[in-house]
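Work through what follows:
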Amino acid sequence: MPVMKKTVGERIFDVFNYVLISLIVFICIAPMWYVIAASFSHPAELMRHTGMFWFPLGTPTLEGYRLVFNNPNIITGYRNTLIILVMGVSINMFMTTLGGYVLSRKNVMWNRPLTLMIIFTMYFSGGLIPSFLLVAQTLSWQDTFWAVTIPGAISTFNLIICRTAFASVPESLEESARLDGANDFVILYRIMIPLSKAMLAVLVLFYAVGHWNSWFPAFLYMRSASMHPLQLVLRTILIENDVNAMGTVEAATGGADDLVDMARLLVRYATIVVATVPILFVYPFVQKHFVKGVMIGGVKG
């Protein structure tokens, strides 16, 4: 089969795409690489240096990570984040698959009005104050994990993706199952879910990343420091510069102001790496499903 030669215009277009994509990749990777290099740098060299650098300054050290993992707030934050992650994703996927299945059925009464009502919530909500009053006072969920998992149990965007994917499954499979006596739960868990694994893997990724990076709901509802997730601990260290959150720094440096400032700077970078890298390792395992899952859920059935 003859190979079609690319025209000059197509080659220029390809070069432009490669350059643009390379620039975008660099913009995304450079900040993270800088933070990783800074986290291994010598604190005194890091304090004196200004501007961008690509390799650890001075003799590479793990002192920042030692201080981070000696901080009990980091360990507690990890524990709380993992609890929220498991609880949240489990609730999210259970509710989203149920809702997506119901909305994908053509024989459901008021299917279209229900879908429009759900889509309406993407653009309008009750607001922050009514939500806070409902969760913290009416439901009394303050300082509980329910406050950061139940209110966001269903993402409208993910629900629409799930609905569209389920609607693309041939109706003949459902009809055959019903002839064999299967009910809706059997059809959902024996037919719909196994045929939509790629889409479900993408939804798990979306929900997991959302829970991992979330800090504002915990900021609102978690008054006890023992309930703070990792991202809220990170915010306290980076933005509020809370001395209590870095008690190990004070102990390790003997309280000397210059040493404390250097150690705090190193701890900030190390904390960012500790809080960010784990979720990055999830992507390689779901990458093969990502494009397929989004396309399945993005094509109208």
